[in-house]
Amino acid sequence: MAVVETRNLTKVFKEGELGAVNNVNLETREGEFLVFLGPSGSGKTTLLRMIAGLETPTEGEILIGGRVVNDLSPRDRRIAMVFQSYALYPHLSVYKNIAFPLKAQKVDKKFHKEKVEWAASLLGIGALLERKPRELSGGERQRVALARAIVREPSVFLLDEPLSNLDAKLRLSAREELERFHRRVGTTTIYVTHDQVEAMAMGDRVVVLNKGVVRQSGTPKEVYDNPADTFVATFLGSPPMNLVENGDVIVGFRPEHFRPAAGVTDAAVPFRLNVENIEYLGSEWIVSGTLVGGSLEGKKVIARLGSAQDLQLGKTYDFAVPHRELKFFDGASQIRVDARPVTWR
Amino acid sequence: MAMSRRKVKSIGAAQSPLLGAAMFGPAVIYILALVGGPFLLAVFYAFSDARIGSVEMHYVGLENFRSILQSPSFRISVRNSIIFTLCSQLVVIVGSSILALALEKPFRGRGLVRFLILLPWVAPIALGAIGWKWILDSIYSVITWVLVALHVFKPYNAPMWLGEPYLAMASVLLVHSWRLMPFSTVILIAGRTAIPKDIPEAAQVDGAGFWRTQFQIILPMMRPIMSVAILFGIIFTFTDMTVVYILTAGGPFDSTQTLPSLAFATGIQGSDLAAGAAISLFLVPILVIIAYFMLRVAHRAEVT
Fold it and tell me: What is the separation of C-alpha B283 from the centre of its chain, rounded to a whole number of angstroms?
């Protein structure tokens, strides 16, 4: 088990262009489940591939277990990686797929069977050992890929969007399984995803990346409740945080905190909402509309309510957001600033 | 789904029952005229005593086959054909695997190198073979000249590349491999690019070095496409006589004679059409076996 650290890590693919990864400083904790979250093109996969040794950094250092590994090949870094496509060897049986890392790292042959069976039983694929990858379902392939990764007992796990090839239903159960798996083996894990739900659900900490830059890192709660800038604020949460420009600041509030004024008892900022659309999603209602009055006239916002049965399309209602749920961002730099009073009338 | 498809089909057939036949016709006529006709003619000749310049022809039963099987030239040719085919395929597949590996990743001038490697395949074979005839000439050979200049051989003792049985065979074999290599290389490059990049990367992370990745991951994955390259190569080699004919014409002493060149020498140059046809018929069973394997490989490639 080990800690992964990056120091000023930068990757520029084409000279003169903006780097895919810029000046990233990160440190995992022992046994942590760290998630890299970002939209496509944010550099999260490049970052992971540099840690794996599949990509050479343009600048900066990578440390695994306190040792600089920049010049080590992937095989010498004691890491295991699960690819988005799983990258199972199609011509080898499941058994041979799982045994391949042992063979490649010249583990004594007499331990192979025992270790493969241990890894397979850990993932519940003991019955599939004689099959070829093409005879497996998506979920089974993912487990084989995980078994192949765990069998050599690596010090770090790198997972590159391992759930994105599964259908929605399977994804949920595979996610839970991955979490349980991590709790059991306790290996430091870095997990790359573009899915904020996955990141929130699985991560001990989440690193939000955009355009190769770390925007924020923290626990899911920190990142969700106290976004460092407007990018993080809108990337996490569905529907995203409402951002309303008001003078030189941007005021942000989560849709679930934007409620009819009658139900808000804390000190709150009042708004007037003209309801334009109502969606019923079973457990909740999504109400979208525009603000009315003053400097906020015409700004689009979304509310997430337990019930919107009393609301009617085209009518204007009194809404409110508790003071402590309002976030403020600098209008120019988009970065979070201290709370301040809101005046819009 | 199945219903509607059947319906469409029947409408098409009802509208123009001859359309299918008309579309199919040219291919059938082409194959019958240029492959089927000559083949039947060869079978016909093989049981006769047809000769060039003679108008008479009689049925002689298996007489031609009997006399061919007793001829030492024929036995040598069969042996040479097998050696020629197997060895050249070995050279080609090893050589083209190395070339495909070298040409896979982009580097400066890759386009030019690819073009140069394709050249032997694109250029007319007669031209290339005549070039090699000069390169390997007994008096003017540049190879000999270089080796003499390097003091590997004395000038009076230099090897006769096309004049000594083993050397001649080796020369013919290597020139033919040179010609086939581009084709096989192109197929193998395509095969390599078809392998997802993830897989060799996964092998790398799993701890496999370069050789293990190549031999235990990439090559096994390339097996179907490699079989295609080999089977095509076998057919191109087994039925081809161009290189042999131009470089050595089967000599010295039949040491490079193969079945096609023997059939040509006997049937056309030696005027014994019947014997030539009979010799060429010996190619058929072997080619049928190869065709069977080709279809099987093609089918398997479709399924997976």
Answer: 13
Report d(CA A21, CA A41) in Å as an integer.
10
B255-294 pLDDT, tens digit per residue, is 888 888 888 888 888 888 888 888 888 888 888 888 888 7
Q: How far is CA A211 from CA A180, A197, A218, in A?
A: 32, 20, 19
Whether the Cβ atoms of residue B260 and residue B204 lie closer than 8 Å to each other: no
* CA–CA gap between residue A62 and residue A71 (Å, rounded): 10
* Residues sharing a CB contact under 8 Å with residue A178, sequence separation 6 or more, in sequence order: A146, A159, A162, A163, A202
Q: What angle do CA A334, A335, A338 make, to 5 degrees?
A: 120
3-state SS class at A225:
helix
Task: Please report residues of A whose CB lies closer than 8 A to that of B221.
Answer: 89-91
* Span B225-235, average pLDDT: 87
**Which residues in chain B are contacts of A151 at CB distance < 8 A?**
none
For A170-315, list the strands marked E by DSSP: 188-193, 205-210, 213-218, 242-246, 249-253, 259-260, 268-280, 285-291, 300-305
For residues A263 and A231, which has the higher predicted lDDT (pLDDT)?
Answer: A231
**Do the beta carbons of residue B290 and residue B232 sit within 8 Å?**
no
Chain B interface residues (partner A, CB cutoff 8 A):
196, 198-199, 201-209, 212, 216-217, 220-221, 223, 304
Question: Which residue is closest to A132 within chain B, CA to CA?
Answer: B304
Taken in order A92, A97, A103, A107, is the CA torsion positive or negative? negative
Determine if the peptide bond prior to B106 is cis (ω within 30°): no
**Is this structure's pTM higher than 0.80?**
no
3-state SS string for B10-56: HHHHHHCCCHHHHHHHHHHHHHHHHHHHHHHHHHHHHCECCCCCCCC
